[in-house]
Specification:
Layout (H helix, E strand, L loop, with lengths): L2 H35 L8 H8 L3 H7 L3 H25 L6 H10 L2 H7 L2 H14 L1 H11 L5 H24 L6 H29 L1
């Protein structure tokens, strides 16, 4: 194969890849537009997406098995974005996951976030995020709270993380309009107060034993 043929082959591959990416973006954007008018994802049909995007059903099924499959892929991407930013912040020494989670949600379309973070999936989505960093946070809190046992940490982390998850889901359900700086400040203050209470209780238990 000549150099010219190789070059043409590479160029053709790039064009096909660009066409594929553009088509998927078109499908996703059409889906997000339909989300603005439909209260439930279940009401959106493949035929609706194809009609508005002006593509065939075969083109849609080349990339997605169904509308739920499309939503699952969008949810997975949102999770990956969240974990990536949380990891970056964590490596810089930041132990509060809330700002990173808020930032990712605000970067994305509100309708998409509300659809992917509904009551059915939002809880498990955020639980997976917090579970991923539980063991990394354990030594930090145990260092700040002498005599804190692993069992006590597990209960405390569950208490705090579920409270924060509740705040995030409430913010999302209310349209994501609330100033997140205010929410972060309130939540951080509550966590600090709870850590102080935890420290007092652990000291008391250690003294009693």
């Amino acid at each position: 194969m000549s150099k010219v043929q190789v070059g043409e082959r590479i160029l053709t591959g790039k064009k096909n890849n660009c066409r594929s990416v553009c088509t998927q973006q078109l499908i996703r954007q059409t889906f997000l537009e339909l989300l603005k008018d439909e209260e439930k994802v279940e009401l959106i049909k493949v035929t609706d997406i194809c009609r508005i995007a002006q593509i065939t059903r075969g083109t849609f099924y080349r990339y997605y098995q169904s509308v739920p499959d499309l939503l699952d892929k969008l949810r997975t991407e949102l999770f990956q974005q969240t974990m990536k930013l949380v990891k970056e912040r964590f490596e810089k020494g930041e132990r509060n996951l809330l700002p990173a989670i808020f930032e990712v949600m605000k970067r994305n379309d509100t309708n998409l976030v509300q659809a992917t973070m509904n009551h059915e999936y939002g809880q498990s989505f955020l639980e997976d995020v917090f579970k991923s960093y539980r063991e990394a946070i354990r030594p930090t809190l145990k260092e700040k709270t002498p005599n804190l046992t692993d069992n006590q940490f597990d209960y405390y982390y569950s208490y705090v993380s579920n409270g924060v998850i509740g705040v995030i889901l409430t913010w999302i359900s209310k349209g994501m309009y609330q100033d997140t700086d205010v929410l972060e400040s309130v939540v951080v203050d509550m966590i600090l107060r709870s850590e102080e209470q935890l420290s007092r209780e652990v000291k008391k238990l250690a003294a009693d034993n």
